[in-house]
User: Which sequence fits this backbone?
């Protein structure tokens, strides 16, 4: 029989076993009746005839066993018996069963939920064909590439890459089907979709003509603007006032790019022919390897090409990297997820140790039953199988409840992770996770079932099983096993509590960081005039100014202004600049700063404090001398020990290639990451910036407006939208959010890690305290006779209390030391994800030892105090 045929045969036996047993029993009884009747007809008495027939059959039960053995299903009958007996044992002690199942449910459920995150984020392939062949080619892993470089790389590396394509960020205003809106989009070279190996669900991909006015849209945009109609393919959609044809709709789960511009809902052609000599860096380059999984040839080819290009054009091809696409998707989240998975593994081990305690106590209470079964002929292996079956039954019950808990926690996990964990929306209890939970339940059942089973394989089973006679105490080996289990629980709880304490201090440090501006009473919204009547320079400037005036007039608004990109939530442009009077640096080594374009009143609106000079105001127009406000980091970096006011710098496209004088210095504001060190920033007046006033491109035809209010910023959203609609109905409003949510999102990764580790540490803490209490209680109960004798011989209750507590705390001390060593060994896992605290912070280590030691002492004192209440006469009278 094949394995599948055998499994099907076993399944039929399990499903139809009782019916087949009844049929077999009826058949044997019929045969015995026929044999009996035959002997009766020959003249034998019926009782003797029946006895002779039974003797001839050799015993009905033996025949049944032989038939079952011939079927190959005898073990199923034994298993069925063991399961029924185990179920009866579980129902006989419902409190014990409930406690064990709950402990296992917490451990298995937490592990299954965490594995679902690991599986979705780290293990599952990306939704592209042969995703392990896809790489990203950029400067220093994530910095964009110029069109000139992309075209050269594509041309010169055909032997190393099967295909290479590029994408560029695009934020067009959509009109023509539904209300106008700004959407996130990408311009891509024609080979992008074939490179990814993904075809549209409807229609076709983009044509090879990069000048074609056609787009491919996402499934979500198709539903939102076209009602999910198949006729959407071929229809017109207007982007920034220009007509495009929808030629395809992508599959529902398609998302590109997966590590940058993750909200893209539309893909259009990227014309590069006119930009073949452009050095402006705006492209992300994707490629497919010719040799799957082998980066070496691709990296060597890129090294050769970029070395030659760098020689011809110094500064243009530095730090070019070839990185697997999935490595960029996972990004910095791999280490935190590994930490969480290690932590949940420790929780599961604590739960197993806790249940092992309980099973050891249960096995000791059942020693008389086991002795009787052994005396009746049950072998050690048969008894061990029964214990293992009972353990597996508990584990499966715990797994069933744990999977329910894991399913209930999916939404909470996704909310905690927010945008800090990529692909978190794909986390689900699918077949892979359920298979993992099933395998885990079997493994844990075997793991915690080993402790009671080990008792059955001692050299002198009869003595061991008979030791529970009147007045007997538990053997040293059992006591030692329970002590080691308790110490291991404490050790793992210490490691988890230290990890949770470190992440809590790290999160507190992040929350205490001063960003340089006050985000709490500020609301921001992006307003785009691209492709509208307000786009020309004269109307654009007037529209923005009227909008700010109307916003300032709203009830509750104290300040209002605008910036191209708000800190943390917006895009980041870093431009090189020159400093007057200093020699030009070598190509590629120019100083760079975040490029901020602001309206008057921005610093007051954001609460961004001036530390010197003045802010940008209404005087800074096209007719006035160029000015710039810099942050402290830029000033201290380039003019250390000097007064930066009056120094002059020059930025591309501002002001008309001339110089701008530094008129003010503001505090540092975070540029791209909450925990990142300060970076250089330059604030330039919008009213003085001809490029921003005139450029029709979508990336310069919008501004982010900010308003500081008295009260809840979110309540201001309808009024701000209404103001925009009243001034220009076709202008789009997007990304409306209180800036306090920006802070929440910026720290969501730390909050996710802290919350999970805190929850796991809390579970381990409670289980460890229960374990200490249980072991001490068990120790007191098993030594009642010894304690009674000591009290009868003159020992004081205080001496007995001290002795019992000392034994328990000695084991706790062993666990604390082992836990500190484990935490120190595992500290490297946390080294790269903590902020403002070292992985071996003595405050956290010491605090955890004191807290857990105090709880363990209390857990030991309660049963130890009961030991002092033992009545010597009552205990000794039972002997």
Assistant:
């Amino acid at each position: 029989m094949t394995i599948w045929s055998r499994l099907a045969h076993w399944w039929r036996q399990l499903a139809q076993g009782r019916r087949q047993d009844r049929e077999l029993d009826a058949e044997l009884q019929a045969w015995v009746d026929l044999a009996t009747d035959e002997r009766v007809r020959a003249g034998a008495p019926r009782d003797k005839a029946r006895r002779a027939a039974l003797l001839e059959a050799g015993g009905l039960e033996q025949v049944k066993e032989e038939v079952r053995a011939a079927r190959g299903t005898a073990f199923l009958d034994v298993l069925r018996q063991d399961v029924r007996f185990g179920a009866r044992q579980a129902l006989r002690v419902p409190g014990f069963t409930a406690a064990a199942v709950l402990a296992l449910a917490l451990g298995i459920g937490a592990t299954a939920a965490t594995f679902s995150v690991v599986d979705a984020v780290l293990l599952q392939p990306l939704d592209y064909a042969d995703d392990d062949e896809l790489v990203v080619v950029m400067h220093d892993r994530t910095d964009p590439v110029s069109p000139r470089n992309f075209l050269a790389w594509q041309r010169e590396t055909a032997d190393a890459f099967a295909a290479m394509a590029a994408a560029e960020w695009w934020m067009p205003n959509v009109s023509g089907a539904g209300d106008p809106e700004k959407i996130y989009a990408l311009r891509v070279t024609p080979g992008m979709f074939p490179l990814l190996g993904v075809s549209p669900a409807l229609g076709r991909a983009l044509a090879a003509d990069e000048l074609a006015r056609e787009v491919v849209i996402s499934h979500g945009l198709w539903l939102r603007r076209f009602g999910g109609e198949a006729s959407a393919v071929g229809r017109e959609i207007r982007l920034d006032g220009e007509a495009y044809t929808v030629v395809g709709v992508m599959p529902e789960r398609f998302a590109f790019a997966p590590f940058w511009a993750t909200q893209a809902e539309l893909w259009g052609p990227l014309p590069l022919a006119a930009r073949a000599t452009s050095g402006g860096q705006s492209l992300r380059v994707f490629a497919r390897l010719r040799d799957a999984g082998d980066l070496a040839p691709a990296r060597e080819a890129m090294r050769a090409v970029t070395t030659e290009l760098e020689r011809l054009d110094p500064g243009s091809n530095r730090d070019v990297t070839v990185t697997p696409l999935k490595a960029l998707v996972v990004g910095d989240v791999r280490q935190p997820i590994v930490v969480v998975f290690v932590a949940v593994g420790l929780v599961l081990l604590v739960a197993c140790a806790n249940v092992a305690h309980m099973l050891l106590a249960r096995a000791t209470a059942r020693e008389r039953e086991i002795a009787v079964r052994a005396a009746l002929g049950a072998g050690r292996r048969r008894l061990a199988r029964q214990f293992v079956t009972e353990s597996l039954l508990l584990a499966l019950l715990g797994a069933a409840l744990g999977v329910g808990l894991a399913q209930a926690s999916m939404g909470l996990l996704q909310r905690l992770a927010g945008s800090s964990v990529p692909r978190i929306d794909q986390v689900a209890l699918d077949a892979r996770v359920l298979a993992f939970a099933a395998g885990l339940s079997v493994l844990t059942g075997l793991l915690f079932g080993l402790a009671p089973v080990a008792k059955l394989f001692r050299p002198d089973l009869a003595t061991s099983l008979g030791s529970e006679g009147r007045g007997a105490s538990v053997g040293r080996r059992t006591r030692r096993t329970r002590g080691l289990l308790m110490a291991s629980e404490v050790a793992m709880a210490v490691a988890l509590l230290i990890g949770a304490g470190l992440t809590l201090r790290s999160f507190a440090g992040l929350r205490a960081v001063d960003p340089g501006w006050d985000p709490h009473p500020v609301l921001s919204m992006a307003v785009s005039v691209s492709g509208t009547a307000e786009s020309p320079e004269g109307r654009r400037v007037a529209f923005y100014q009227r909008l700010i005036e109307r916003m300032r007039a709203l009830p509750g608004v104290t300040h209002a202004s605008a910036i191209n990109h708000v800190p943390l939530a917006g895009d980041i442009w870093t431009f090189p600049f020159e400093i007057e009077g200093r020699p030009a640096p070598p190509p590629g080594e120019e100083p760079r700063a975040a490029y901020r374009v602001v309206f008057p009143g921005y610093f007051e609106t954001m609460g961004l404090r001036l530390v010197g000079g003045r802010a940008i105001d209404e005087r800074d127009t096209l007719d006035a001398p160029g000015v710039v406000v810099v942050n402290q980091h830029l000033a201290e970096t380039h003019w250390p020990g000097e007064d930066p006011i009056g120094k002059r710098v020059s930025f591309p496209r501002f002001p008309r290639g001339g110089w701008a004088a530094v008129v003010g210095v503001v505090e540092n504001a975070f540029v791209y990451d909450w925990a990142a060190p300060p970076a250089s920033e330059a604030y330039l007046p919008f009213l003085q910036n001809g490029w921003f006033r005139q450029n029709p491109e979508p990336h310069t035809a919008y501004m982010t407006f900010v308003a500081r209010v008295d009260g809840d910023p979110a309540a201001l959203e309808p009024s701000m939208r209404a103001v925009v609609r009243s001034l220009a109905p076709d202008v789009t409003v997007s990304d409306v959010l209180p800036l306090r949510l920006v802070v929440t999102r910026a720290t969501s990764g730390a909050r996710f890690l802290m919350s999970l580790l805190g929850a796991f540490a809390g579970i381990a803490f409670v289980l460890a305290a229960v374990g200490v209490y249980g072991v001490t209680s068990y120790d007191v109960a098993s030594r009642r006779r010894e304690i009674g004798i000591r009290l009868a011989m003159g020992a004081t209750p205080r001496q007995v209390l001290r002795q019992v507590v000392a034994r328990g705390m000695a084991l706790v001390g062993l666990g604390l030391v082992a836990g500190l060593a484990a935490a120190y060994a595992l500290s490297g896992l946390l080294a790269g994800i903590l902020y403002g605290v070292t992985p071996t912070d003595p405050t956290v280590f010491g605090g955890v030892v004191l807290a857990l030691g105090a709880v363990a002492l209390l857990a030991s004192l309660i049963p130890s105090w009961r030991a002092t209440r033992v009545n010597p006469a009552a205990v000794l009278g039972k002997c």
In short: Residues 3-72 form one domain. The chain has four domains: 3-72, 144-318, 334-511+748-877, 530-730.
